[in-house]
């Protein structure tokens, strides 16, 4: 019975030595981005108007023969206008990235004992 205990202890010792010789490097990188943009501008308008006017011209002659003219004018204007506008904005974007890397360096470990020994 002591032979089997000795043998299993040697196997454990050998496995622990092999595990000590293995180096593990792990790295993980993540990236993320997001953006939103968009613009829409609409303007509209209308105008209407009416103009009316009248004028009157009178000419007077003096006793010495000189003429004198007077013009009388009147005008009326009416205008209506309407306008409006709309502004809309929309947009979206998204990006993700992830990278994982794992490196094992050192001797390989045969826990099951099925590989051939060199």
TrEMBL record:
It comes from the Eukaryota. Residues 1-32, 55-104 are annotated as: Disordered. Residues 57-71 have a biased composition (Basic and acidic residues). Residues 1-21 have a biased composition (Polar residues). This is Uncharacterized protein. It comes from Aulographum hederae CBS 113979.
